[in-house]
Amino acid sequence: MIIVLIGYMGSGKSTIGKELATVLDYGFLDLDDYISDKENASIPEIFKKKGEIYFRKKETEYLSEVISTSENLVLALGGGTPCYGNNMDLINDKANLISIYLKLSIPLLAKRLFQERANRPLISHINSETDLLEFIGKHLFERSPYYSKSQFTLNTDHKTKQEIIESLLVHLI
């Protein structure tokens, strides 16, 4: 089985994904890390040197490659991955794959991301929590229709890692 974790940046896809993979004795893969390895460049470098259109095409190509050739894997997608091309169709049409949207509220996302915004090129220019709240709200409004195509949605507000893992296991067993 492949478990695909979907959600906004900072929602915990990689953190929860690694923990879930350990519990299930599965492999773990962050799609952005996979793309960086394949392209021999960081995501910001790819955007800067080759542009977003190139990145999104490669993202779809590598997503298809991973879900076609893997098993027993927890896959964390980039926050924008579900929103481009036919990525959600690729995910939802694949047998033995479960897609789960890790949904964290806008205020909690903003609180979490404000502290680490220097490491997030998309939001590094935002200097106040109020502006970040507005940015995330607009982004989530645009992305929600794609995220909601996931097979399951798990609200992670005020839940510990262990509680989230336990909730995920309910959907997987």
Give your account of this protein's structure.
The chain has 173 residues and is an alpha/beta fold. It has a single domain, classed as Rossmann fold. It is 55% helix and 14% strand. Strands 2-3-1-4-5 form a five-stranded parallel β-sheet. Helix 1 packs across helix 7 and helix 2 crosses helix 3. The longest helix is centred in the N-terminal third of the chain and has 27 residues.
Number of separate structural domains: 1
Helix/strand/pairing class, anyone?
A: alpha/beta
CATH superfamily: P-loop containing nucleotide triphosphate hydrolases
The total of helices stands at: 7
Distance between the termini: 11 Å
The biggest sheet amounts to: 5 strands, parallel
Low-confidence spans: pLDDT under 50, at least 5 residues? none
Overall pLDDT, averaged?
93
CATH fold-level label: Rossmann fold
